[in-house]
Design brief:
47% helix; globular; 2 domains; 9 strands; alpha/beta; single chain
């Protein structure tokens, strides 16, 4: 709604019209979707049309509150209300199911307190160029997750789902068969490493993560057929990384780090690797035209103090750490994807 001009003067400001234009409850959509996911409402609606009372009873919620919540979820696109008053699942709601591959863990993680509260200090982060997480929680985001295991699990699930497709693409685009000892630095619960090991039956893998994440990986991989070929190692990659690898995987780690820490990590990988080994860096890349990576870039600023980078900035970090033969790895069919895949050689 736009305010109409009056008597040739400038348009009169209309608070109600401006409110509709501003759409102030857009910010709440993520929180609504997190609630939908946590209550597992999509699992119930996937069974077919349901009344609000049926949904409430199935998920163990208050009936009156559920009736109100489902009406609001329609506004946010997670459910649809039919003419008979029953609710059905939308395409958006399908993404939040727990019983099929989905983005449920991602939605819970990015809308949880650990990530949301630092965004309250967005303006301060932009003013200072410094992460807001320590200001809010008194610790960095990784220590926060160590103290909040339920959120840590949701975050690990979000890392898993965002890695699955990339791992499949890499397995088709890159020759992993030449390596014997593959070290995945900051590899979460091992989705990428296990996929790579399928392509390298002769190789062993090392999953290197923080202690709390290693325990999550140990649980996730307990029944995995490749578990015996994976060495789980806990530590801090800013201090050192496991030695003796002829391939080091560094996926979506550098963007969480400021330049000095990114340089330290890459230098540690170079020091630990055997001569003529490779490092494969996979991360978000800034492109000439703005994309969702630019929003992710601000997320990095607020939460970790890191940043997304241009291809030239990644190359500068790698060459500065001592790597040579730095080259892009093309992903056939995904050439325009805002993701850098870069191979570098340890001399």
């Amino acid at each position: 709604m736009r305010p109409e001009p009056h008597d040739g003067a400038a348009p009169r400001f209309s608070p109600l019209g401006a409110l509709a234009q501003l759409n102030p409850f857009t910010w709440a959509t993520g929180l609504f979707l997190r609630g939908v996911a946590e209550l597992k409402i999509p699992d119930e609606l996937a069974r077919g049309p349901r009344t609000s009372d049926q949904v409430a009873d199935a998920v163990g919620a208050d009936r009156a509150s559920m009736a109100r919540f489902l009406r609001a979820c329609v506004v946010h696109g997670a459910a649809q209300r039919e003419t008979d008053g029953r609710y059905t699942l939308t395409d958006l709601g399908q993404l939040l199911r727990s019983d099929i591959p989905s983005l449920r863990g991602f939605v819970i993680a990015v809308n949880g307190p650990g990530m949301v509260r630092p965004w309250e200090r967005l303006a301060e982060a932009v003013r200072t160029g410094r992460s807001a997480t320590n200001d809010v929680w008194g610790v960095d985001i990784h220590e926060y997750y160590a103290q909040h295991p339920e959120e840590a699990l949701a975050y690990a699930e979000s890392c898993d789902v965002l890695t699955i497709e990339a791992a499949e693409l890499l397995s088709r685009a890159y020759d992993f068969a030449r390596f014997q000892r593959i070290v995945d630095v900051g590899g979460s619960r091992g989705v990428l490493l296990t996929r790579v090991l399928k392509e390298t039956p002769q190789a062993g893998g090392v999953l290197f993560e923080l202690p709390t994440v290693v325990e999550l990986a140990r649980t996730a991989l307990a029944e995995h057929q490749l578990r015996e070929r994976i060495e789980l190692t806990a530590g801090d990659f800013l201090a050192e990384v496991p030695t003796g690898g002829d391939l080091y995987l560094v996926k979506n780690v550098i963007s969480d780090l400021a330049d000095a820490d990114a340089a330290t990590l890459l230098a540690n990988c170079l020091k630990a690797a055997v001569p003529d080994s490779r490092l494969l860096l996979v991360d978000w890349v800034l492109q000439p035209a703005p994309s969702f990576v630019d929003a992710t870039d601000i997320d990095c600023l607020v939460l970790t103090g890191g940043k997304a980078r241009t291809p030239e900035e990644y190359e500068h970090l790698l060459s500065g750490a001592g790597y040579t033969n730095i080259s892009d790895v093309p992903l056939p069919g995904f050439e325009a994807a805002p993701m850098a895949v870069i191979e570098a050689t340890r001399p």
